[in-house]
Amino acid sequence: MTVRRHSLSWSERLYLPAVARGLAITLRAMFRPRFTRQYPEEPMPKYPVTRGQPRLVRKEDGAPACVSCGLCEYACPAFAITIDGGETERFIEREPKRFEIDMLRCILCGFCEEACPKDAIFMSQELELAGYTREEHVLGLEQLLRPASDFEERMRYVGEINHRWHATELAARARTGNKDAAAAGHP
Amino acid sequence: MAELIPITINDREHQAPLGARLIDVITEITGEEIPRFCYHRDLPVVGSCRMCQVEIEAPAPGNVLRKALAISCRTSVQRGMQVWTQSPAAQNARRGVLEFLLKDHPLDCPICDKAGECPLQDYTYREGQSEGRSHDPRRKRRKRVSLGDVIVLDQERCVLCSRCVRFFPAVEGREQLQVLDIANRSVIGTFDDRPLTGNYQGNLADICPVGALTLRKFRFQARVWNTRPMPSTCTRCSRGCAIQVDAYRGRVVRIRPRYDAEVNKSWMCDVGRFTFDDWNLPGRLATGIQATAGGATDLGVDGGAQCAGQWLAEAGAAALLVGSPCLTQEEGQALLELARGLGTDAHFLAPEPGAGDGVLYTGDPAPNRRGLTDLGLTPMSPEDLRRHLSGAGASLLAGEKILHFLHGLDPGSGDVAVPATNAGPRSIVIDTHPREGFGLCLPARSAVEKGGTVRNVQGLDRRLRPVLPAPPGVPDGVALLARIATAAARHGALVG
Ligand code: SF4
Ligand code: SF4
Ligand code: SF4
Ligand code: FES
Questions:
Q1: What is the pLDDT of residues A43-57, one digit of tens each?
Q2: Closest Cα of chain A to B225: distance in Å?
Q3: What's the CATH number of domain A54-148, 3.20.20.70, 2.40.420.20, 3.30.70.3270, 3.40.50.1110?
Q4: Using CA atoms, how far apart are residues B328 and A152, in angstroms rounded to an integer?
Q5: CATH tag, B4-99
Q6: Domain B289-495 annotated CATH 3.40.50.740
Q7: Is the distance from the beta carbon of residue A57 to the nearest atom of ligand 1 less than 6 Å?
Q8: Predicted model pTM
Q9: What would the pLDDT profile of B463-492 be if each residue is shown by its tens digit?
Q10: What distance in Å separates residue A132's CA from the closest CA in chain B?
Q11: Which of B204, B126, B122 has the alpha carbon at shortest distance from B163?
């Protein structure tokens, strides 16, 4: 196949008009509002929807809210969570003896938060997750625990989402008489 | 065999034995599991929970056809019977039963060991409703009640099916648990909270359809959806109960009975159920180790087999070959063939059987005594073995736990207590862990790592199945004995 080249005109061969056009674009951009960010001097804005490092909730009495039911471990698509359960003397008989999240595996999907029946794990707003060794990315129980007050905003947000889902589910169930109606609608 | 008569289940014609129990007939014919709490195939039927209701139409007295709800566990197949398992009336009745059971049920699933294999959970998902309609506060009951060393009771989770109450008289012939108090105050318990006793307590955790009776040993060890259950056969006594071994992260965490109509039905004893720690012991032997003057030399498995073959061939008919009573038929046969090649006898170590308990546990710790005897291995008592061991030209002790039996240790006691054995310079042991006092140690697979056949005390052949992977490099017992035989042949023994 032959490619027909069209020969440049005189003004094109001069290049100067093109350079001037380019400079005009640059000039205009200098006065437009900026949308890049001077990270890390200017940190990312945080919203309740931000899904950062998953964290465990510490209850007022100092105990983890987690009961080591293992649902987050099972829900985790990246196999980032490892839990060993054990007996405790407290009223709720079971607590995690080991709870590890491998942040090199974690993909910050938030499935653990969604699976938890105890409101014990939440996605925090921490997104700076760098480190120098592999080991420091495997966070244990003590490193993960944060007081419940840290999650108030996120808890409210997650609660709202659950509530909305539940309402849809109930409406679908009432409409179709099928108890799995809404669930069946979402593969 | 009862007469087969036509019966209509869910509008389809089937044949069923006259007088058979409807709940079993439905499951057998259609594969549909009718929800049940109080009914258990190996316990007396009481029909108290009403969970198994189906709609039937059958001729009533006066020759009228009557349509009604009936509990399928206490209804027998009759002539002219029609059954609907999923009619609106049946579904509604079962949903009602579930709603009442759940009214006072604690929301314990996240901390409940039964979650994941809980019939109450399963039935609720399958045919219950997710919303309760009662606004009464939930009834409070005692939780974490200790019923001895084996079982923990949670009265809140109990659905009062009374399976546990019926279990003891039906299986052990004496009563232990009772329904205490009446009506809405009923709870399960023992008089004065006395601990349960006996060798069959573990079965309670299997038959309890909820997490009211749980095993102390398994408590919070693993979530059941993470465990990998594998069928196998128990090797703690010569009964050979069918079992299911649950492994989690490469360890055995629980053993449960598996139904075997001829051997153990739905039960197993606590000796077999709880002595599995020795299968999780670290420090496994995975190579051939020869004791030398300065210490020990690692020969590798092949080098070890070569060395063993040479020693045995040189001793010839003066070699002493003794297998563990835990050998499978296949391993026993391999040992027998090796012995024939050397021109000597194959023995197996036969400890003195203890007393059984008259139910399942035979008291004989040698699981394959009958099979090895039938194969033609000669039984040898631990005393005789001790006497012959040091005098033999070369000796081979083959199989897991043989030293436990030799020293009269409990085979379930683990590895800690096995003392050094003075067995002479040309002695070989094939075991799971390195043993002191032998010229050569070769690795063995444990009973949960090998496949094979054992013949139980009734003469029934049952399969062992590899549940856990063997440590890398550890050959199957049959393969290792064959390698030794090949090496022995190379050194002049007439193997084969
Ligand atoms: S799902 Fe919640 S309660 Fe369960 S183990 Fe995870 S954090 Fe703990
Ligand atoms: S018995 Fe079943 S339903 Fe009840 S708490 Fe345990 S798992 Fe949940
Ligand atoms: S403790 Fe379990 S087996 Fe016993 S009555 Fe209650 S639910 Fe049934
Ligand atoms: S299973 Fe039939 S009434 Fe309980």
A1: 888 899 999 999 999
A2: 9
A3: 3.30.70.3270
A4: 62
A5: 3.10.20.740
A6: yes
A7: no
A8: 0.88
A9: 999 999 999 999 999 999 999 999 999 998
A10: 29
A11: B204
